Amino acid sequence: MMFTVVVPLYNKAKSIGMCIESILKQEMVDFELVVVDDGSTDGGADVVKSFDDARIRLVRKRNGGVSSARNRGVAEARGEWVAFLDGDDVWNRFHLQTLAELHRKYPEAGVLSTDYAALTTDEGLERILSPAPEGGGDGMVKDYYLRLLKGQRVLCSSSVAVRRDCLMEAGGFDERLARGEDMDLWARLYERFVMAVSGKVTAFYRTVIGDVRATERKGDVRRYDVYHFRPGFWKFSYRNMFQYRVIWRYLKHFLVYGQYKNFMLLFFRHNVYLLQIIRYGILARKSGLMF
Predict the structure, then answer these.
(1) Is the pTM here over 0.90, yes or no?
(2) 121, pLDDT greater than 80
(3) Which has more pLDDT, 208 or 125?
(4) Quick one: pLDDT at residue 124?
(5) Residue 214: predicted pLDDT
(6) What's the sign of the alpha-carbon dihedral 222, 226, 229, 234?
(7) For 30-87, how does the pLDDT look when each residue is reduced to its tens digit (9 = 90+)?
(8) Band of the pLDDT at 213, cuts 50, 70, 90?
(9) 68: which of 44, 64, 124, 247 fits an S-S bond (Cβ 3.0–4.6 Å)?
(10) CA–CA dist 99, 109 (Å, integer)
(11) Which CATH class is domain 3-206?
(12) How far apart are CA 161 and CA 186, in angstroms?
């Protein structure tokens, strides 16, 4: 089982070194690392070049967004499996080994993931990344949307590995989307392939205190996954409930943060669903689900 690790890089010179170090320290050594420089201007590519390891390939391209960079990495991949890691995130040294063990346990799965956690500081990082990971058991994901509605973690872009042929069949990341591109792909993969997850925490995504929260950043909602949702109207499903929840939360968010243009665009895109949003919201709360 060989992994291609794909790392999209855009102006993360301060963190890409630590990211790569966490990959090179993996207990499982049968992998290649493809770093896709998406038009960085801060010297991040030079940091990548400073690593003397034959498994590393640096691919440079014009800036096209994170989905474009990830898709380019998939196109360059030589491994059967593609594992993703963002340029400011890190892995515990048992991450790839945990994914390989999960594959042996569930060989029918086309999507694998470990559990993940937030990283707010680099202090004591070695104590997190070196020991054998702790966490719950393994299992197949048969209730993806219900898990999300319960507030449970399932997949993230730095914990997941996907068989390359499954990625190609699903169409990869949608390069039209500027937000929600990862959730969009996970949904398409869930509809087509078996997912297996480990409860062991081996991936850590970075949060920067004092930075502008992603929820407060402005963008055109027409490039969000929520704008393109098409939930079912009559038949009940947790997929519908999840999509209605996301629509509702974005509408509230745009009002709170004064993004009135985005509010109007999303409202008129999905106003036909307003009664369904209310109905599903009531059902969710009666069931103890997050809405």
Answers:
(1) yes
(2) no
(3) 125
(4) 63
(5) 46
(6) negative
(7) 999 999 999 999 999 999 999 999 999 999 999 999 999 999 999 999 999 999 999 9
(8) very low
(9) 64
(10) 11
(11) alpha beta
(12) 11
CA 96 from centroid of its chain's CA atoms = 16
Which value, in Å, is the radius of gyration of the alpha carbons in the chain? 19
Domains of the chain: which residue ranges?
3-206, 216-286
CA distance between the termini of the chain: 40
Cα 249 from Cα 11, distance rounded (Å): 30
The residues pairing with 90 across neighbouring beta strands, listed in sequence order, are 204
User: How far apart are the C-alpha atoms of 194 and 191, rounded to whole Å?
Assistant: 8
Query: Judging by beta carbons within 10 Å of its beta carbon (0-12, 13-18, 19+), is residue 47 exposed, middle or buried?
Result: buried
Q: CA–CA separation, 219 vs 206, rounded Å? A: 22
Q: Which two tokens stand for residue 180?
A: 């929600």
SS (H, E, C) the chain: CCEEEEEEECCCCCCHHHHHHHHHCCCCCCEEEEEEEECCCCCHHHHHHCCCCCCEEEEEECCCCHHHHHHHHHHHCCCCEEEECCCCCEECCCHHHHHHHHHHHCCCCCEEEEEEEEECCCCCHHHHHCCCCCEEEEEECCCHHHHHHCCCCCCCCCCEEEEHHHHHHHCCCCCCCCECHHHHHHHHHHHHCCEEEEEEEEEEEECCCCCCCHHHCCCCHHHEHHHHCCCCCCCCCHHHHHHHHHHHHHHHHHHHCCCHHHHHHHHHHHHHHHHHHHHHHHHHHHCCCCC
Structure tokens, 118:
């937030």
